[in-house]
Amino acid sequence: MTRPRTPLLLTTGAMAALAVATGCAAEEEVPAPPTMTASSSSTMAAPSTESSTPGAIASNSAAASSASTSTAASSEDTAGTESEADAPTTSATTAGPTGGGESRPEDDKESAEASVTAEAGTGSDEGDDSDGGSVTSGDTADSGELASARSQARSYLEFTGFSRTGLIDQLEYEGYSNAVATEAVDGMDIDFDAEALQSAESYLEHTAFSEEGLQGQLEYEGYTLEQAAGAVAAVGVDTASEAVESARSYLKHSGMSESGLIDQLEYEGFSAEEAASAVEGLDVDWTAEAAESAASYLKHTSMSRSELIDQLVFEGFTTSQAEAGVSAAGL
């Protein structure tokens, strides 16, 4: 950039020298020079007019010339300093190539874009987990969720037996995704054969099962065929006593005929011999069962006496049991 030139101020000595050169009288009074500005590096005092002799004029001329040169140099330095102070300042990170003067706006823009690109690349590298050497915040959150799912799974296993699929389904019901639930369960050391045995024992504590019925229930809960069969064999089902218990349970909740109860036990998986033996061993008033069944039908539908007797016979009661039952029901 071109630096502005500062106009030079002529001192009294310089004006006197100019007067000698142009032939003006030495005795002519030279007006006092204007006051120097504050930007000048030195202030010259106006010489007395009484010393305007030829020798003094020559001496003053030389001094004036030297002072003028000093003043010009000082003014140029001052202007240069002001110009450099006005020049735009660029940071070290975005400055263009040095050595060619001031940087161009295009260079600053390109340098700034390169800096931003470099910073973005650095941020991307920090989140890269391709080599397994770093863990992102997302991975940390997933790990926390996985640990929570496993903790939840352990709490379930402390109270009851679960199959693999049953435990995954339970975790999904609790709000975990299928992926998290599956990884949580598969990452645990679970003996599902032992879980199947625990489930089988729990079922037998609360209700009566035949061997076939218990295995079917375990498979329904998600255990494999081998796991269910192994559990049934290990638990040792007493089918005779289970058949009796199951028969009593049915009679407690509904009126049933003798033949109807035997059919129901066979449907539950007991053999014909086990079912018949269990029913025969019970002390049952079949006429009272007919009356209970008749009252239940009348409670839910409107039927004539003959229609109700026919329905009870269809259910397995004898004709005499049906007629007595309908009469006891008040029809």
Describe this structure as you would to a colleague:
It is built from 15 helices and no strands. The protein is elongated, with a radius of gyration of 57 Å. The chain has three domains: 10-34 and 51-76, no CATH class; 142-235, no CATH class; 240-328, no CATH class. The protein is mainly alpha-helical. Mean pLDDT is 74; it is low at 1-12, 16-22, 24-103 and 116-141. Helix 4 crosses helix 6 (178-186), helix 11 (258-267) packs antiparallel against helix 12 (272-280) and helix 13 packs across helix 15 (319-328). The protein is 64% helix and 0% strand.
Number of strands: 0
Report the biggest beta sheet as strand number plus sense, adding barrel if it closes: none
- Rg measurement, Å: 57 Å
Overall structural domain count: 3
Shape: elongated
Quick check: average pLDDT? Answer: 74
Cα distance, first to last residue?
123 Å
Low-confidence stretches: 1-12, 16-22, 24-103, 116-141
What is the ordering of alpha helices and beta strands? HHHHHHHHHHHHHHH
SS class:
mainly alpha
Classify the beta-strand content into a percent band. under 5%
Number of helices: 15
Report helical residue fraction: 55-70%
Write the layout of secondary structure elements.
Elements: H1 12-22, H2 54-86, H3 105-126, H4 137-157, H5 164-173, H6 178-186, H7 192-206, H8 211-220, H9 225-235, H10 239-253, H11 258-267, H12 272-280, H13 286-300, H14 305-314, H15 319-328
Helix pairs in contact: 1-2, 4-6, 5-6, 7-9, 8-9, 10-11, 10-12, 11-12, 13-15, 14-15
